[in-house]
């Protein structure tokens, strides 16, 4: 009843079926991706099977899981828990895996890099020979790489980066905002005075030879080349041979 009962907006579902059918008929190479939090069955199956017709759905639980585990020491991360979240999807419905998105990078939260390394990123991201480092940065960079690799390997049949995640962008995005009130609760919502300070992405960090962001970007590029060579993301079968909590091994 949750998905196919009277609570379902049938007109909306039929509309999406028609749109996907039309797009794929007119543009056979088109790819459509749906953002769905309900877990609607057959969301990514063709309309003639009774599906909604999307090619992929966003695997939205993964980014939330990483934020959840990063609030604890990485010595306590549950390997089985992480694996379950990565692989908890329906067979034959393709997903887009991603480690973080706008929900994590917009004001109010922190990027994965900032969760892992916090204020040390302002002082200790110099490349070897160009300045000091710290154990927090060393460990944070290693964990950032592993988070992305696990997400790409287990999180879906495709992989998504978000606006600097590929090189560990340190700060959030904040668009110019004036003070306002929540229309549903009447609560005061402070703005930022129309500031444009955080309304940008620092792509120059990735290009700077004297900073360590270039190593995070190189790792992301290597992951993409690895899948291009072996096609593990779109492989029809996925097998996790070991989940060892004590050894922190997947």
Oligomeric form:
single chain
Cα-based radius of gyration, to the nearest Å = 21 Å
- Counted by DSSP, the helix tally is 8
- State the strand order across the main sheet: 1-2-3-4
List segments where confidence is low: pLDDT < 50 over at least 5 consecutive residues: none
The tally of strands reads 6
Strand percentage, roughly? Answer: 5-15%
End-to-end separation: 37 Å
The best one-word shape is globular
Order of helices and strands: HEEHHEHHHEEEHH
Q: By helix and strand content, what is the structural category?
A: mainly alpha
What is the residue-mean pLDDT, rounded to a whole number? 91
Helix content: 25-40%
Largest sheet, strands/sense/barrel: 4 strands, parallel
Structure commentary:
The protein has helices spanning 10-26, 61-70, 79-87, 102-105, 112-117, 135-154, 203-207, 213-230; strands at residues 33-34, 56-58, 95-97, 158-159, 180-181, 188-189. By secondary structure, the protein is mainly alpha-helical. The strands form 2 sheets. It has a 4-stranded parallel sheet. A two-stranded antiparallel ribbon has the order 5-6. The radius of gyration is 21 Å and the shape is globular. The two termini are 37 Å apart.
């Amino acid at each position: 009843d949750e998905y196919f009962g009277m609570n379902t907006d049938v007109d909306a579902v039929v509309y999406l079926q028609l749109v996907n059918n039309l797009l794929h008929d007119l543009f056979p190479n088109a790819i459509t991706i749906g953002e769905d939090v309900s877990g609607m069955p057959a969301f990514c199956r063709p309309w003639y099977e009774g599906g909604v017709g999307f090619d992929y759905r966003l695997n939205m639980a993964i980014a939330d899981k990483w934020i959840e585990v990063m609030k604890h020491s990485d010595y306590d991360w549950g390997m089985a828990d992480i694996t379950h979240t990565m692989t908890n999807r329906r067979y034959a419905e393709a997903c887009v895996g991603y480690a973080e998105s706008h929900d994590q990078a917009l004001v109010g939260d922190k990027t994965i890099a900032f969760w892992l390394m916090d204020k040390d990123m302002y002082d200790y991201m110099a490349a070897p020979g160009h300045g000091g480092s710290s154990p927090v940065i060393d460990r944070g960079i290693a964990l950032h790489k592993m988070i992305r690799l696990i997400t790409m390997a287990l999180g879906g049949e495709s992989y998504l980066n978000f606006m600097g995640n590929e090189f560990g962008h340190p700060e959030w995005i904040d668009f110019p905002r004036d003070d306002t009130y929540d229309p549903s609760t009447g609560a005061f919502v402070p703005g930022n005075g129309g500031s444009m300070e955080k309304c940008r992405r620092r792509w120059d960090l990735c290009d700077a030879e004297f900073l360590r962001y270039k190593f995070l970007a190189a790792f992301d590029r290597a992951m993409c080349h690895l899948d291009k060579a072996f096609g593990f993301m779109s492989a029809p079968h996925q097998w996790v041979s070991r989940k060892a909590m004590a050894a922190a091994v997947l």
